[in-house]
Design goal:
Blueprint: H1 3-18, H2 30-37, H3 41-53, E1 57-60, E2 64-67, H4 72-96, H5 99-118, H6 121-139, H7 142-154, H8 156-162, H9 168-184, H10 188-199, H11 203-214
Antiparallel strand pairs: 1-2
Helix pairs in contact: 1-3, 2-3, 4-6, 4-7, 4-9, 4-10, 5-6, 5-9, 6-7, 9-10
């Protein structure tokens, strides 16, 4: 199985969890999933391990892999911390970026523009991931890059879901342009603020995210985030 094929498999299971096809507390049977997706149990087991690492699945005694619902408050807190880490990475990138970093940022932004034009939200998400990793690299802080990447992985399903909100990709690519400009201008204050705003899920953005999650079972209530 190629890397792309595996990622599609993992994303299909992930989508099933996020959309409520696999309900919180439900056991994910490896044999049934393997039959459903037409693969062996090995990639299913690896996909479940990856989903466990980001908190969507939990291994429980005598039950195996079970779907976990982190709840809206936990999701909000993760986005809150991610916004601060990204802002720090942007500020450091503004101070420390090299010509190589400049080229990587511009190239990754161009890829995002192309995928945004295609209106394929999943393709845009993965190009967007490359863009953010270019910022982490430009910060020249290995520890910060590691922390950003780890939380980025944990928020992957929710950030992918965000992009399905009407016009979010269009808004996102516009925000990218401002972020790139601030970093390349060496304006660390603006770079920090633009990245924080880009990631944060305050107000309507948080409500939209929770609304999308609510559609799976109609039971979530979004806390107020102003």
């Amino acid at each position: 199985m190629t890397s792309n094929t595996f990622h599609k498999l993992r994303d299909q299971i992930e989508n099933g969890i996020i959309t409520g096809e696999f309900a919180p507390g439900e056991r994910l049977d490896e044999v049934q999933l393997a039959t459903r997706f037409g693969v062996s149990r090995t990639p299913i087991r690896e996909a479940l391990m990856q989903l466990s690492a980001i908190g969507l699945v939990e291994a429980r005694p005598r039950r195996g892999a079970v779907v976990v619902d982190p709840g809206p408050n936990r999701i909000y807190e993760m986005f809150e911390v991610m916004a601060e880490l990204e802002g720090m990475a942007g500020a450091m990138a503004a101070r420390r970026h090299t010509e190589e970093d400049r080229a990587a940022l511009l190239a990754s932004h161009e890829r995002c523009e192309l995928s945004a034009a295609s209106e394929d939200t999943d393709s845009y998400y993965y190009d967007n991931e490359v863009f953010h990793h270019a910022i982490y690299a430009a910060s020249h802080s290995t520890f910060l890059a590691e922390q950003c990447a780890a939380l980025h992985r944990r928020l992957r399903p929710y950030r992918r879901l965000q992009l399905r909100v009407r016009n979010r990709v269009k808004v996102s690519i516009g925000e990218h342009a401002g972020i790139v400009q601030a970093i390349l201008d060496g304006d660390e204050v603006t770079a920090r603020q633009r990245l924080r705003d880009h990631i944060a899920v305050q107000g309507d953005r948080f409500s939209d995210l929770i609304s999308n999650l609510s559609r799976r079972d109609g039971t979530r209530t979004a806390p107020s985030r102003q």
